[in-house]
Design goal:
Blueprint lengths: L15 H15 L2 H9 L21 H8 L22 H14 L4 E3 L3 H11 L3 H15 L1 E7 L9 E6 L3 E6 L2 E14 L2 E10 L2 E9 L6 E3 L13 E3 L8 E5 L25 H20 L3 E5 L21 E4 L14 E3 L5 H18 L17 H7 L1 H32 L10 E3 L8 H13 L5 H8 L5 H16 L32
Parallel strand pairs: 11-12
Antiparallel strand pairs: 1-14, 2-3, 2-10, 4-5, 5-6, 6-7, 7-8, 7-9, 11-13
């Protein structure tokens, strides 16, 4: 299919529910107070995820009255008077949840295994070129926006090999057939001048990539322009043949399905949901709780109520000013004297700060948000910080690890296909000479064993003659490749052969005194006489 026609409404109207909800998740993920204020207190006041009450609706009769009724539903929807400074605080818990999801998946780089040795060697070169950092970014965005796109990029003026790029879910228009992605159009604003907007559209189809530059308005693409009309698209080709007819050069990886908010919407039925989907009102209440605590702290400042006549005058006709940050006193226009005589004496004033009540409320809200997002509170460090074994950590973080396993079920096939297409592009455009294949993906351990515990296990296995030196080295260094492991095994055997007999420590294979090591692999122990 060609690129959109001139004057097309953008984003497309059928994606209004998806676009509206993505804007909500994006605001919470950003951690930006201004973004949240604009979202809930501006044109999206009320239910920002519902396009019928937001700016995406074709007509919005009685908007002012509806906004007035719905502002009170959200803490971030309450306007701040122009004469007052904004005192609302934002706890960036949504961003923390998304980052934790990425750490659980890719804190340790995954391993990719191909059947062919030549393909494996080339795959190691391609994934070793910054793929781990890209996967961390992709996994975090995926958890925040419900999914992420990975596209294959190549440009000989930039790199001598292809690579995988990350595209956020709110910058893509997908097309589905039987639940499978058949095409996708990525778009970005390359220039904006008032109501004039320049957009670059990049459409991926099987075997083909189309580029288009549009000059339009805030809600429509306008007219297509020559790609050389803007520096951001200058040098791009309007049509690129990928030479890979059996696959898209872009793919979608969902975070978690189903997306409950639009499961009955055809345009979004196959998309994923954000980790914190459904917790927006709780996060709003969490911000209100911390803002209330800080309000107590501000009101709890010790002050002295002092008659204004006790203080120095500003001069005849100049009036008086009040500094809210005065450490001690506040002038009061009142009679001087005792309280019994109807006057005002110097009076101390200090309100109580309800720290415990606020923190307990915040802790309860945080625990509920984390639990509804699919994680254990232990994962976020809210439990007792006591040194425990990896087995105990796994037991405490069971819910988080279950969520991680569910996500790997989406990431494994999606990432494997992206790597197959990456190898195919590499063979077609860079003449690598390897056979493209889908590699097997093994995710790293999310909970690392304590080195002391591993060493004790290795010692017991060695004493029981239940593992070879190579196996023990692999267990102690799971991130090492085969050459590193073999080199370490050789060094261990060489050091054992050079040990001084009779020392009792680090003895050679022929020694039989206390502390003597077991024979090298393949050799029998001396028979007892």
């Amino acid at each position: 299919m060609p690129l959109p026609a001139n004057g097309t409404v953008w984003p497309p109207r059928d994606l209004d529910p998806v676009t509206a909800r993505l804007s909500v998740w994006s605001a919470w993920y950003s951690g930006d107070s201004d973004h949240l204020s604009d979202l809930y207190g501006g044109t999206l006041a009320g239910d920002p995820g519902n396009p019928a009450s937001g700016p995406l609706a074709p007509d919005r009769p009685g908007l002012r009255g509806r906004v007035g009724r719905t502002l009170a539903r959200w803490f971030w929807g309450t306007p701040t008077a122009e004469t007052e400074r904004r005192t609302k605080l934002h706890v960036p818990l949504a961003g923390d949840i998304a980052a934790t999801s990425a750490d659980l998946l890719f804190s340790e780089p995954p391993t990719f295994t191909a059947e062919s040795d030549a393909t494996q060697a080339r795959l190691d070169e391609l994934v070793g070129d910054g793929l781990h950092a890209d996967l961390l970014e992709a996994a975090e965005v995926c958890a925040a926006l419900g999914g992420v796109y990975l596209r294959t990029c190549w440009d000989t003026s930039v790199r001598d090999r292809p690579w995988l790029g990350v595209v956020h879910a709110d910058a893509a228009i997908p097309e589905w057939r039987w639940g499978q992605l058949t095409a996708v159009t990525f778009w970005q604003v390359v220039h904006r001048d008032g109501s004039e907007v320049w957009r670059h559209l990049e459409r991926h189809e099987p075997g083909l990539i189309l580029n288009g530059l549009y000059k339009g308005g805030l809600t429509d693409l306008g007219k297509i322009q020559d790609l050389s009309a803007h520096p951001a698209t200058k040098g791009l080709q309007s049509m690129v043949e990928t030479r890979v007819p059996d696959g898209l050069t872009a793919g979608y990886i969902p975070n978690m399905r189903p997306a409950r908010v639009w499961r009955d919407t055809p345009a979004g039925a196959h998309l994923g949901r954000a980790d914190f989907s459904g917790t927006e009102s709780l996060m709003d209440s969490l911000d209100e709780t911390y803002s209330s605590l800080m309000r107590d702290i501000r009101l709890g400042k010790a002050r002295l109520l002092v008659p204004e006549t006790y203080l120095q005058s500003q001069g005849r006709g100049k009036g008086a000013t009040w500094d809210s940050e005065r450490e001690l006193y506040t002038p009061m226009d009142a009679l001087v004297g005792t309280t019994q005589a109807g006057g005002l004496a110097i009076t101390p004033a200090q309100f109580a700060i309800r720290v415990t009540e606020h923190l307990e409320t915040a802790r309860a809200l945080t625990d509920q948000i984390v639990r509804m997002s699919g994680y254990s509170t232990q994962t976020f460090g809210t439990a007792d910080q006591v040194a425990v074994t990896a087995t105990e950590v796994t037991a405490r973080e069971r819910r988080s690890l279950i969520t991680r396993d569910r996500k790997t079920g989406y990431w494994s096939p999606g990432l494997a296909e992206r790597l197959r297409v990456l190898l195919a592009i590499d063979a077609a455009h860079f003449r690598s000479g390897v056979t493209p294949e889908r590699p097997t993906i093994k995710f790293g351990d999310s909970v690392s064993e304590d080195p002391a515990s591993l060493a004790q296990t290795a010692q017991l296995m060695r004493a029981a003659e239940a593992a070879s030196t190579e196996t023990l080295v692999q267990m102690m260094h799971p991130d090492w490749d085969d050459p590193q492991i073999q080199a370490e095994v050789k060094r261990i055997k060489d050091e054992g052969a050079m040990s001084v007999p009779g020392s009792g420590v680090g003895m050679g294979p022929g020694d039989t005194g206390p502390g003597a090591p077991f024979p090298p692999d393949g050799e029998d122990e001396p028979a007892e006489e």
